[in-house]
């Protein structure tokens, strides 16, 4: 059991038959009246975020969300196949679950975290940073060093990201999968 007074960022619990995760919390002790907890909580299955206040003594059941490292193998229509590297078990995951993250930045054989609750897969967490090769972009010109000027570049996975003018076709880039933004050139 977890009480609202024990809330911390990342804590998962069951509320009204749903699995919720604390995104942000604040313990409030007003000068007059009882203390309370104001929290932003996210439904881990649907992704919806709500703000709610709790009495610090409110109790909830703990919810254990399993995060397993699995290797992305291939896509077949609307199914994406992942393999557990310990048991070699392969599981298909539907497009509706894949679409909840920036999966266009993931290429075959990358290891992702597969999130499940009571055996039901509800999400994928790709690696935080990936290194991908640029397959197509306008050529960079020597001296193009103006700041904050970007151009589109197509990566080996087909994703398009904004990059500085000096990036050329064939360059390896480091991309943040949380935002989909270019970070730096990767060292080969």
Describe the protein:
There is one protein chain. The chain has 188 residues and is mostly beta strands. The chain has 1 helix and 16 strands. The protein has 3 domains: 61 residues, SH3 type barrels, CATH 2.30.30.30; 60 residues, OB fold (Dihydrolipoamide Acetyltransferase, E2P), CATH 2.40.50.140; 57 residues, OB fold (Dihydrolipoamide Acetyltransferase, E2P). Helix content is 2%, strand content 53%. The strands form 3 sheets. A 6-stranded antiparallel sheet has the order 1-6-2-3-4-5, with no helix packed on it. A 5-stranded antiparallel sheet has the order 9-8-7-10-11. Strand 2 and strand 3 form a beta hairpin. The longest helix has 4 residues.
Give me a quick take on this structure.
This protein is mainly beta and 188 residues long. The chain has one helix at residues 95-98, and strands at 2-3, 12-15, 18-28, 36-43, 49-54, 59-62, 66-76, 79-84, 90-94, 111-117, 120-125, 129-137, 150-155, 160-164, 172-176, 181-185.
